[in-house]
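Hi Q.,

Before the meeting this afternoon, I wanted you to have the protoporphyrin IX containing FE prediction in hand. No need to reply - just skim if you have a minute. The sequence and ligand are here:
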Amino acid sequence: MAALLLFLACVVGTQYFTILEAQDPSQLSLDYYSKSCPAAEHIVRQEMECAVRQNPRNAAIILRLHFHDCFVQGCDGSVLLDDTATLIGEKQADQNANSLKGFDLIDKIKVKLEAECPKVVSCADLLAIAARDAVILVGGPYWDVPVGRLDSKTASLEKANIDIPTPKQGLFTLISKFLVKGLSITDMVALVGSHTIGVSRCVNFRERIYGNFQLTSKFAPASEIYLTKLKETCPMEGRDDNISPMDYITPIVFDNAFFGSLLRGDGLLNSDQKLTSLIGFQTTNLVIKYWADPIAFFKQFSDSMVKMGNITNPEGGEVRKNCRFVNT
Ligand code: HEM
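Predicted structure with the ligand bound:
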C-alpha cells in the first residue's frame, strides 16, 4: 500500500494527492505553490491592481467576500458557488443577497490562474490572497497568506443565514459568532476595522439614523451635517440600496479613522457603534487602542486575518476549475 501511495505521489504529484485528504489548518503553508504554480501570487496581485485602480471599492468587495467565505464551513470557496439543479449556494443568504459582489473579478483571476497552471490553485486560496492584496492596495498592512486550502463540494445556505453576523445583532451575539469560529474579542474588533473601507446600503443603517439611540449612542453633535446627509441618502422609506461609506473621513483608505468615528459616536452600522457601548468595556478599550495606535491596529489586523483565513473546512474538497461550480 505504501509503495502504491508513493508511486501515485510521484506520478500524479502531491497536488492531486491532497484532494483525497481531509483538511486541517496545519496543512496550510507559505510555499504550497512554490513548485506547482510559482506565479500564482503575482497573477492575483496583477489582476487586483487593475481592479482596484479601476474602482477602489473592489478592495472592500473582495475583503468582505473572503470574510463571508470563511464564516460558512471555513474558507473553502463555498460562497462562490452558483445555485444549480443539485446545489443550493450561499449567494441568496440574508447577508449576501443583493449585497455581495466581486464574483466576476474572481472568475477573471481564476481564468488567468488556470491558463498558467490548470487545476492547481484553489478558489479559496485565490480569494484569501486577493483579500490580502486588496488591503495593501488601499494602504493597509501586508501579511503572508498561508495557502493550500481546498474548495468545498458543498455550500450551506442555512449556515450562511445563521453564522454570518448582522448589523441588527447585539454585542454578545456578535462576540459569540466570532468565538465559535475560534476568533477572540480582540480578533473581532480588529477585523471589524475592515469597515474603514467600503460602503453600506441604506437598508442596513436606517435603524441607526432614525432609531433609538439608547441602543447605541447619539451621533456627535458636530456631525449634524453628516447625519442630515445620511438622511438624504437614506429616507425613512424606500431607496434601500442607496449607499454610504462606513468611514466617511477616509472612505477609500485602509487606516484607523474608522475607530475615531466610533469614539465620536459616528459609526454608521448599529453593530459597529455597539463596540463602544457601555456593556462593551473590553471592545471599547480596543477601539480606543486602535484609534491611538495605528501600528497596533495594523499588526492585530494582519494576525487576525491569518487566523480567520486558517479556518478550514474539515471535509476537504478539490481544486475547482471554475469557482462557480463543483468539478464534474
Ligand atoms: C460584527 C461583524 C460584522 C457585521 C455585523 C458586518 C456587517 C456589514 C454590513 C451590514 C455591511 C454592508 C453590506 C450592505 O449594505 O450591502 C458590511 C460591509 C462590509 N464589511 Fe462587514 N460586518 C462585520 C464584520 C466584517 C468583517 C470581519 C470583515 C472583514 C474581515 C468585514 C468587511 C466588510 C467590508 C470590506 C464591507 C464593505 C463591502 C462593500 O463595500 O461592498 N465586515 N458589513
